Each structure stands twice: as structure tokens, then as C-alpha cells.
Amino acid sequence: MPLAGQVLDEYLHQVSITENIHNKWWSESVEQFEQGKLAMLIAYMNLFNDVAHSNIFPKIGFAPVPGGVPQLGGGALGVSRYSQKTHYAEQFYRWLYSPIVMDHLILLGGNSKSSRFQP
User: Fold this and answer.
1) pTM for the full model?
2) Every domain of the chain and the residues it spans
3) Can you quote a single GO CC term (predicted)?
């Protein structure tokens, strides 16, 4: 099976075991992250203002994206520092911020500060 098919199969598997949060805004997701119910979170940075003043703040960490070329915008990806599977999160981030994925993101209307885009 081609790599893209394997990635899609793995993504569909992950969707089947993830928490589906039915809400109208991001705050419920952030609350669940604060409570330790989510190991990983994609959210806008402004929603983390309260987290910076909560009990969870000393327990979370962050780092520059692999390759040092982040997607511009207000979003953020989060992984619990206590995750038992950080290797998988690292693999996901390396794939997500890889040049080929970033090129596709740009072609689909996204943006990136990378100057190496190859249409």
C-alpha cells in the first residue's frame, strides 16, 4: 500500500479512538486539556491565557516546530509532557511540518513563512 494510503488508514484509526467533543467553541477542549483528559490539543494561542495562570501551567511544555518553519497563524499543537507515547507525537509533528505537507497546505490556500515552496 502506498504511504498515503497507510497514513489515511492510520488517521482513520486515530479518529475512531479519539474523543469527539461536540461544542460550539474551543473552550471545552482547553478545559479538558487542563483537566488531563486530553494528551494532545490543537487550539488557538489566545485560549491559553487562562492556562498560564492555572495549576496545569508548570506541567505543560512547548518547543519550536521541527525545522523551525511554523505555519503562520494563531494555532498551536499541544502534547502532554507526561504522555507515554511522545515518540508518536514527534513523528506526527515531523510529518505535519515536513516540506511536502507544507507545500500541499500552501496549494490548498494555507500559508507558511517557508521560502522554499516548490509548486
Assistant:
1) 0.44
2) 3-107
3) cell envelope
